[in-house]
Automatic annotation (TrEMBL):
Entry keyword NAD: yes
Organism of this sequence: Paractinoplanes ovalisporus
Keywords: NAD, Oxidoreductase
InterPro entries associated with the record: Ald_DH/histidinol_DH (IPR016161), Ald_DH_C (IPR016163), Ald_DH_CS_CYS (IPR016160), Ald_DH_N (IPR016162), Aldehyde_DH_dom (IPR015590), MeMal-semiAld_DH (IPR010061)
Protein name: methylmalonate-semialdehyde dehydrogenase (CoA acylating)
The EC number(s) this enzyme carries: 1.2.1.27
Length: 497
C-alpha cells in the first residue's frame, strides 16, 4: 500500500499531519492506498509556495508560458494510456472512457496554448486628440481548484491549464477518493519546464477546503462538485472577497419526441445514462417520452440496457465499471428501492449485481425505471449512478415545463426530426448546455462549460473564453504623450473630446 503525498513546491511531501484517508479499487472493493489529509500548516505551505512562485511566473513572458503549455500538451498526449490506467484503478471507469476523459482535458490544454491570442487587449488610437486608450488583462495570483471524484483528470484540467497560461499559480485540492491522477499530472508539469510552486497538489477533505477558503493569499476559487458544497464554497469564498465559480450537481433530462429516430435515441440514451456508471454531471438520468414515444422507446432502452457489459474497468471487454465506493452503491440501490416503493416500475434491475471474479466490487448494473413521477425521490434526487428514469408527458411544452421546474439546470437534450420543436426547446429551457440529437452536450474547450440555477453558483462558466476572463482582471489605460513644445490647457471641466 502506497501513501499518496502532497505535491508542494515541486516535490512530494507527507505534510505535517497524521490523518490519512483510504483509497479503494472499486472493482475489487479493496483498499489499495491511503492518502494524506492536509492540516492548516500544509494548506499554508502549499499557498505560500504558490504565492512565492507567482512573483516570477506572474511576470513570465507570454512566449515562455506558451512554450511550457505546448510542452505540457505533448507530455499529456504521450501519457494518455498511463493516466487512463491510474484513473480506472481508483475511479473504476473503463479504460477507454478514462482515455476519453484525458482527451477532453487535453483539448483544454490545447485551448490554453493559444493564450497569446486569448489575452490580446483592445486599442483605440486617438480616442481624444492626442489620447490613446487600451486594455489588457493581468493574472490574479494564487488560484485554488477543488474538484470531484468523477473526472479526476479532466475537471482539474478545466482549471489549471487556463489559470497557469494566464500567469497565475495554482493549488489543486482533488477528490480524496481518487487522488493519484493529480500527482501524475504534477510531475508532467514539472517535466514540461513549469517552475516549482506554480502547480501544487494538496490532498485532503473538508479541513483542506476550509483552509483554502480562509487563506488570505488565495485570490480565486474554482469548484466542481455537488450542489450543497458548491453553494457553501460560493458563499464562504465570496464572503472573504475571493473570486469564485462553483459548479454543482445535475439532473439532466432528455426529451424524446415521437418523430425521433427511436433506435438512434435509445442507443444514445443508454450510452448517456450508463457510460461511466452514470457518474457524470452530464449523464442523462431522466428520459421524458412525449406523446406516443414512450412504449416503443422503453422496449428499445430495456433491450440495450440489458446488453451493457459490466466488469472491471481494466478489462477491455467491459463497457461499464463499478461505482466509486460501497457507500455510493448502497445509496444508489436505496434510491431504486424508494422508486419501487413509490409505485414506479423497475424494468431493468441492476441491484445486487455480482461480477464473477470481482464479487466484492462496488457494482450496480444498468437500471431502468418506468412510470416515474416528478414527486418521487428517485426523480428529485441526483442519483449519480447507472439509473435511467422514464417520465411521460403529453406535449413538448409540458416536457419543457418539467425541465424548467427542476432546480438543476446543467445539461439537457432533445431527440426529434422537427427543427421547429428543437428551436422551441433550445429557446425555452432554462439550462446552460443543450443538445439537439446529442445526448451529452459538453461544449468544446473553446466554448465555456456551465449550468444554470442550482448547477452553478457564480457568474462565470469554466474554461473557454469565460475561463480566461475568470482567471484575469482587466486594466484600461488612457494615455497622452504631449510633445514638449505643445502647451495643453488643463481644464476643470469634465473632458469630452
Ligand atoms: P463532492 O461535492 O462530495 O466533493 C467535491 C469536492 O469537495 C471534493 O474535493 C471534496 O473533498 C470536497 N468536499 C466534500 N465535502 C465537503 C465539505 N463538507 N466541505 C468542503 N469541501 C468538501 O462531490 P463528489 O461526490 O466528489 O462529485 C460528484 C458531484 O459532483 C455530483 O453532484 C456531480 O453532479 C458533481 N459534478 C458537477 C460537475 C459540473 O460540471 N457541474 C462536474 C462533475 C461533477
Amino acid at each position: 500500500m502506497v501513501t499518496i503525498e502532497h505535491w508542494i513546491g515541486g516535490e512530494f511531501t507527507a505534510g505535517s499531519g497524521n490523518r490519512r484517508g483510504p483509497v479503494f479499487n472499486p472493482a475489487t472493493g479493496r483498499q489499495q492506498h491511503d492518502v494524506v489529509l492536509a492540516t492548516d500548516a500544509d494548506v499554508d505551505a502549499a499557498v505560500t509556495a504558490a504565492r512565492i512562485a507567482f512573483e516570477t511566473w506572474g511576470q513570465a513572458s507570454l512566449s515562455k508560458r506558451t512554450k511550457t503549455l505546448f510542452n505540457f500538451r505533448e507530455l499529456v498526449n504521450a501519457r494518455v494510456k498511463e493516466l487512463a490506467g491510474i484513473i480506472s484503478d481508483e475511479h473504476g471507469k473503463v479504460l477507454s472512457d478514462a482515455a476519453g476523459e484525458v482527451q477532453r482535458g487535453l483539448e483544454v490544454i490545447e485551448f490554453a496554448c493559444g493564450i497569446p491570442q486569448l489575452l490580446k487587449g483592445d486599442y483605440s488610437d486617438q480616442a481624444s486628440t492626442g489620447v490613446d486608450v487600451f486594455s489588457f488583462r493581468e493574472p490574479l495570483g494564487v488560484c485554488a481548484g477543488i474538484t470531484p471524484f468523477n473526472f479526476p483528470a479532466m475537471v482539474p484540467m478545466w482549471m489549471h491549464p487556463v489559470a497557469i497560461a494566464c500567469g497565475n499559480t495554482f493549488v489543486l485540492k482533488p477528490s480524496e477518493r481518487d487522488p493519484s491522477a493529480s500527482n501524475y499530472v504534477a510531475e508532467l508539469w514539472k517535466e514540461a519546464g513549469l517552475p516549482d510552486g506554480v502547480f501544487n497538489v494538496l490532498h485532503g477533505d473538508k479541513a483542506a477546503v476550509d483552509g483554502l477558503l480562509q487563506h488570505p493569499d488565495v485570490a480565486a476559487v474554482s469548484f466542481v462538485g455537488s450542489t450543497p458544497i458548491a453553494r457553501y464554497i460560493h458563499d464562504e469564498a465570496s464572503k472573504r472577497g475571493k473570486r469564485v465559480q462553483a459548479l454543482g450537481g445535475a439532473k439532466n433530462h432528455a426529451i424524446i419526441l415521437p418523430d425521433a429516430d427511436l433506435e438512434f435515441a435509445a442507443g444514445h440514451l443508454t450510452a448517456a445514462a450508463f457510460g461511466s456508471a452514470g457518474e457524470r454531471c452530464m449523464a442523462i438520468s431522466a428520459a421524458v417520452a412525449v406523446g406516443g414515444a414512450g412504449d416503443a422507446l422503453l422496449d428499445l432502452v430495456n433491450r440495450k440496457a440489458g446488453e451493457v457489459v459490466v466488469g472491471n474497468g481494466r478489462d477491455p471487454s467491459s463497457e461499464m465499471g463499478p461505482v466509486v465506493t460501497a457507500a455510493a452503491k448502497q445509496r444508489i440501490e436505496g434510491l431504486i428501492d424508494s422508486g419501487e416503493r413509490a409505485g414506479a416500475k423497475v424494468t431493468v434491475d441492476g441491484r445486487g449485481l455480482r461480477v464473477p471474479g470481482f464479487e466484492e466490487g462496488f457494482f450496480v448494473g444498468p437500471t431502468v425505471i418506468d412510470q416515474v413521477e416528478p414527486s418521487m425521490e428517485v426523480y428529485t434526487e441526483e442519483i449519480f449512478g447507472p439509473v435511467l428514469s422514464v417520465v411521460r408527458t403529453d406535449t413538448v411544452d409540458a416536457a419543457i415545463d418539467l425541465i424548467n421546474r427542476n432546480p438543476y439546470g446543467n445539461g439537457t437534450a432533445i431527440f426529434t426530426s422537427s427543427g421547429e420543436a428543437a428551436r422551441r426547446f433550445q429557446r425555452g429551457v432554462r439550462v446552460g448546455m443543450i443538445g439537439i440529437n446529442v445526448p451529452i452536450p459538453v461544449p468544446m474547450a473553446y466554448y465555456s462549460f456551465g449550468g444554470w440555477k442550482d448547477s452553478l453558483f457564480g457568474d462565470k462558466h469554466i474554461h473557454g473564453p469565460e475561463g480566461v476572463s475568470f482567471y484575469t482582471r482587466g486594466k484600461v489605460v488612457t494615455s497622452r504623450w504631449p510633445h514638449v513644445s505643445h502647451a495643453y490647457d488643463a481644464s476643470l471641466h469634465f473632458p469630452t473630446s
